[in-house]
Write the structure tokens for this entry.
Amino acid sequence: MPALRTAIALLLSLHVALPAFAQPPPEPWEPGVRHLQLSPSATGEVPELRITPGVALTVEFDSQVRPLRQGGVELEERGRFRRVSLDEEGHVLTLVLAPGQMPDKPPRLTVHFADGAVPASATFSLVAHPAQAQTHVQVYRQPRSAEVCCAQADVEREKAQRCLVELERTRAEASARRPAGLIGLRSQGLLDWDGMPKKVLDNATLTRAPANAFELAKATAFRSAAPPRQEGEGRVRVAVLLRFEGPGAEDWKAEGAQLASRGGVGRHVTVWQSPANDPGFTEVMVETELTEEEARGHFTLKLWDASGTRTVTLGGVTFP
């Protein structure tokens, strides 16, 4: 959609002025169902699908008859995958990259269709990412129905609205040359710890992944009010201030983070990292906006660096 593309382009141009803050990625890595329309003619383009170790990716093919032929799935580096299965009807392909596997080169997935229609096959590039997985992809070889197109149009409108809201927020931050929200207050040393709801997250609250790159020294969650997006809606801004310790922690740079509710889709968050860290320590703060109902839940927070190999995962995150 033109509005969505324009908003994303402006966001990217403004982000150049704010290098210290990790921002949500552009399309097509939005959470939720992704729709892919295959072209009958060979264009040379290979669609990218993002996968995360240990998280199932289901690829569903639309067809009234069996879409994929028997033995019609080819996967590079198959040994890295814990599960590669096709349902009995040949409609749904499930892939699970084994935990700890982060291929340097994206493996190619090629599927061969059984009905003889064009295209006869399709190839996808599986891009590994530590957190931002696509969990459900619907692949179309025939024109989509009006109902599906309308549903997708609604999704695109919602994405465009979110981008426009984020654009206005980023414009304000860029004009002031500092971030907004709770992170902005923290980066300027203006956060009044005693003047807002906060909650210390301790060992009785949090769970830690065994493969975490660093030990957690301290974690504090915060909450403040946020303006509603529609009448009668209660919204809050929530943040978690984290202090990690371990060899090399002062040189580790958080590239991004994701906050996921139990059984829910991961939510991108804004990340700030203190520019001055003591040897063996680093301080990171993440922030996002939730409805009041969402903020009452339990979350898993995951942070990663640019390589995607040094990550920190914390479960049982709650907010005051």
Summary: The CA atoms of residues 14 and 30 lie 20 Å apart. The two ends are 39 Å apart (CA to CA).
